[in-house]
């Protein structure tokens, strides 16, 4: 059984993920309402919006934690074309190559930093161990595969500057290091698309700058496209190539960071309506009263 | 609890202690009045009540004095609480000694039956202890590594035992053919249990597995024509030394090897058989922990949602844990059947599941050495208290409570990492999750 959906309509060459008419309802509540956007290859796309706008729900639909009520999510990577709404969560990560991090960090706290990165390489290691059968008997190339996996983990630990803490339990790391480790762990699955849910939350300004550098290097060196939810506007404006703004489950703006920042609808969503509009509304009320 | 203000503001500690002890004594009075104070007896007119106020008085005085003593010493306000937590340094030393104690214990287990002063009783006890060590190690995969609370583990033990008994009796298959078959059948039942409980967590998982254990036992009890019902199955073929019987005849083990016949030969063979089976369980578990499947189990125990986001198929991972745990129980079950020669549903009651789970929890979930020590202590302790059978359960309960107070995560609570770059550091049990189902 193949998990690819190559008969689905092709996407333009530069588009990695196309979200079309995505709607998610929980009972009577419509968390996401008819949202469409593209994530392009080699770009950092930011998904922003006030609290409760539906950003994390969009994430959970893309990564398979929710099944969307309506909508199509097409991912077209080197491995083929996938309709994410038809795949199960672990298939989305393993086959389609979408990795994610979580708003509240979800590391394997009782396992070491190195073990965390090895768990992320479960699929290739599982294959190398002959789905455990050969591995138990000690036959096959599991030793070599594990060595390669450790080397890859080491390379990532050097990149996130945690190589000295490789043998410490992940729960012992400071908050900022845990954030970086979670990103490295997601990257160890070799994703085509990395989804980050508020990666800068709780970081101090210096750590935030380091994070920006890391995210840029993931985009440029690893060729992985990033989709991130972020509240920290300095991060969003600094690093993203493309910004999508959600409010009350709907897209209200979509474009380059500068254009989005000046979009009156975005300003209204974040800061309420502008002064002129307030005057306008007051005038209308007066007219109605007289 | 220190009183910073003037002593007049806070009541004197002595008065507070007496007051507290008085309240405890009142509670004791309320409990003791009906339970100790009144004894029913048979009289000519029917039922009569004989009061025993002296007992009530003794109980109340004992509670008052004991509580007062504790209030003034151990529970004195302002006394620093330190004795309970074990410092990490001690923890690390314990983990390090466990590394050397393990091989020593295995060596002792191998030579124990050959020592000159070992009696037959000790070997019998050794067989019993090793059976529970093996069951503990098997359950450790499910509970300790994968973090799935299984209260019906004895069901797989029963499946293994009945598989061997029925296959051997109806088809005349030998022990060595039945052993893997019993393991496979038990693993199959493990998967069968695994499917409905995949989405359950914590208490709900515990209840369903508990029910599963009871279902298996009740089916065995009522499926009369197949399992013999409450009469069980008797005359199960005894184990053979790869085809050679342990009997007095000319083809027996003793005659074949030119030894004089001794009933001890079979016991020794059984001892080494269960020792080998237990060591295989241990070896496989240790290997599995270092393979991706073992890491996936532990990751599942730590955080299931993160596992799903990393492409781990949690369904397969949980089912393999159930299946492998059940398989080892199946092996142990067929050993049990061949050792006893007779099995009935009586041997597979919930108490057995609870005992095996207690071994795993007291030993320290996930620790192979801790589980083995706990099995020796629990089963050996049970045997020591055989003569005081009235106090057996109360001592058992007391020991459990004490261990849970002093070492809430079991004897060996630290986790040893499966892979390391420079230095293997034990991970404190406080950081390791227990699993949520």
UniProtKB/TrEMBL annotation, chain A:
A GO biological process of this protein is: D-alanine transmembrane transport
Q: Which top-level group of life is the source organism from?
A: Bacteria
Question: Which keywords does UniProt give here?
Answer: Amino-acid transport, ATP-binding, Nucleotide-binding, Transport
| Alphabetized SUPFAM superfamilies for the sequence | P-loop containing nucleoside triphosphate hydrolases
Q: Which InterPro entries match?
A: AAA+_ATPase (IPR003593), ABC_AA/LPS_Transport (IPR051120), ABC_transporter-like_ATP-bd (IPR003439), BCA_ABC_TP_C (IPR032823), P-loop_NTPase (IPR027417)
Q: Which CDD domains match?
A: ABC_Mj1267_LivG_branched
UniProt keyword ATP-binding, yes or no: yes
Q: Which GO terms describe its cellular component?
A: plasma membrane
Q: Which GO terms describe its molecular function?
A: ATP binding; ATP hydrolysis activity; L-isoleucine transmembrane transporter activity; L-phenylalanine transmembrane transporter activity; L-valine transmembrane transporter activity
Keyword check for Glycoprotein: no
Give start and end of each ABC transporter domain: 17-273
Q: What protein family is recorded?
A: Belongs to the ABC transporter superfamily.
Q: What is this protein called?
A: ABC transporter ATP-binding protein
- Protein's organism: Methylopila jiangsuensis
UniProtKB/TrEMBL annotation, chain B:
A Gene Ontology molecular function term of the record: branched-chain amino acid transmembrane transporter activity
Just give the chief location class.
Answer: membrane
- GO cellular component assignments: plasma membrane
Q: How does it sit in the membrane?
A: Multi-pass membrane protein
> Which of UniProt's keywords are assigned here?
Cell membrane, Membrane, Transmembrane, Transmembrane helix
The protein's organism comes out as Methylopila jiangsuensis
One matching Pfam family: BPD_transp_2
Q: Which residues cross the membrane?
A: 21-41, 56-76, 97-115, 121-141, 148-167, 173-192, 204-225, 267-286, 319-342, 354-379, 391-408
Q: Which CDD domains does this entry report, sorted A to Z?
A: TM_PBP1_LivM_like
Which ranges of the sequence are coiled-coil? none
In what residue span(s) does the High-affinity branched-chain amino acid transport system permease LivHM N-terminal domain sit?
A: 17-111
The protein in question is named: Branched-chain amino acid ABC transporter permease
């Amino acid at each position: 059984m193949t998990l690819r959906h190559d008969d689905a309509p092709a996407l333009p060459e530069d588009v990695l993920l196309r979200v079309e008419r995505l709607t998610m309802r929980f009972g009577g509540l419509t968390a996401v309402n008819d949202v469409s956007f593209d994530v392009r290859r080699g770009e950092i796309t930011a998904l922003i919006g006030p609290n409760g706008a539906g950003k994390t729900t969009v994430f959970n639909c893309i990564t398979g934690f929710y099944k969307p009520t309506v909508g199509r999510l097409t991912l077209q990577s080197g491995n083929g074309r996938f309709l994410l709404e038809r795949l199960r969560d672990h298939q989305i990560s393993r086959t389609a190559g979408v990795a994610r991090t979580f708003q509240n960090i979800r590391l394997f706290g009782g396992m070491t930093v190195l073990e965390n990165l090895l768990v992320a390489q479960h699929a290739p290691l599982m294959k190398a161990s002959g789905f455990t059968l050969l591995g138990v008997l000690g036959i096959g190339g599991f030793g070599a595969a594990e060595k390669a996996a450790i080397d890859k983990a080491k390379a990532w630990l050097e990149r996130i500057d945690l190589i000295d803490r490789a043998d410490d339990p992940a729960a012992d790391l400071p908050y900022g290091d845990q954030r970086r480790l979670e990103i490295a762990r997601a990257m160890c699955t070799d994703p085509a698309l990395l989804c980050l849910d508020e990666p800068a939350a709780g970081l101090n300004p210096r750590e935030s700058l380091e994070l920006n550098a890391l995210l840029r290097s993931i985009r440029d060196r690893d060729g992985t496209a990033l989709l991130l939810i972020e509240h920290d506007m300095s991060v969003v404006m600094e690093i993203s190539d493309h910004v999508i703004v959600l409010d009350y489950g709907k897209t209200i703006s979509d474009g380059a960071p500068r254009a989005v920042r000046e979009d009156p609808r975005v300003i209204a969503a974040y800061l309420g309506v502008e002064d002129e509009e307030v005057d306008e509304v007051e005038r209308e009320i007066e007219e109605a009263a007289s | 609890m220190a009183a910073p203000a003037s002593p007049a503001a806070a009541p004197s500690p002595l008065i507070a202690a007496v007051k507290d002890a008085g309240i405890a004594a009142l509670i004791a009075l309320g409990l003791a009045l009906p339970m100790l104070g009144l004894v029913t007896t048979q009289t000519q007119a029917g039922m009569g009540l004989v009061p025993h106020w002296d007992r009530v008085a003794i109980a109340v005085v004992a509670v008052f004095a004991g509580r007062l003593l504790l209030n003034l010493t151990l529970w004195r306000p302002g006394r620093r609480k330190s004795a309970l937590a074990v410092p990490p340094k001690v923890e690390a030393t314990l983990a390090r000694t466990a590394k050397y104690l393990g091989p020593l214990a295995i060596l002792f287990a191998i030579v124990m039956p050959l020592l000159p002063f070992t009696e037959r009783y000790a070997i019998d006890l050794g067989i019993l202890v090793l059976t529970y060590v093996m069951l503990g190690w098997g359950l450790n995969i499910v509970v300790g590594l994968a973090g799935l609370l299984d209260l019906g583990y004895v069901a797989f033990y029963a499946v293994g035992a009945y598989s061997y008994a029925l296959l051997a009796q109806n088809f005349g298959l030998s022990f060595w053919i039945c052993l893997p078959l019993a393991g496979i059948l038990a693993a199959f039942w493990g998967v069968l249990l695994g499917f409905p409980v995949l989405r359950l967590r914590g208490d709900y998982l515990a209840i369903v597995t508990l029910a599963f254990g009871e279902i298996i036992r009740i089916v065995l009890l009522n499926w009369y024509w197949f399992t013999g019902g409450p009469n069980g199955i008797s005359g199960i073929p005894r184990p053979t030394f790869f085809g050679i019987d342990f009997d007095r005849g000319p083809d027996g083990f003793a005659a074949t090897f030119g030894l004089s016949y001794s009933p001890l030969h079979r016991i020794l063979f059984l001892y080494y058989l269960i020792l080998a089976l237990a060591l295989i369980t241990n070896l496989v578990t240790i290997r599995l922990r270092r393979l991706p499947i073992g890491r996936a189990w532990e990751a599942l125990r730590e955080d299931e949602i993160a596992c799903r986001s990393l492409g781990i198929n949690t369904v397969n991972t949980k089912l393999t844990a159930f299946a492998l745990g059940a398989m080892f129980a199946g092996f142990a079950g067929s050993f049990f059947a061949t050792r006893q020669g007779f099995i009935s549903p009586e041997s597979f009651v919930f108490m057995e599941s609870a005992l095996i789970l207690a071994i795993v929890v007291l030993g320290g979930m996930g620790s192979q050495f801790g589980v083995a020590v706990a099995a020796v202590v629990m089963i050996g302790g049970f045997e020591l208290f055989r003569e005081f059978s009235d106090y057996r359960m109360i001592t058992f309960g007391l020991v459990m409570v004490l261990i849970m107070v002093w070492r809430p995560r079991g004897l060996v609570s630290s986790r040893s990492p499966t892979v390391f770059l420079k230095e293997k550091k034990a991970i404190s049990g406080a950081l390791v999750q227990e699993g949520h189902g």
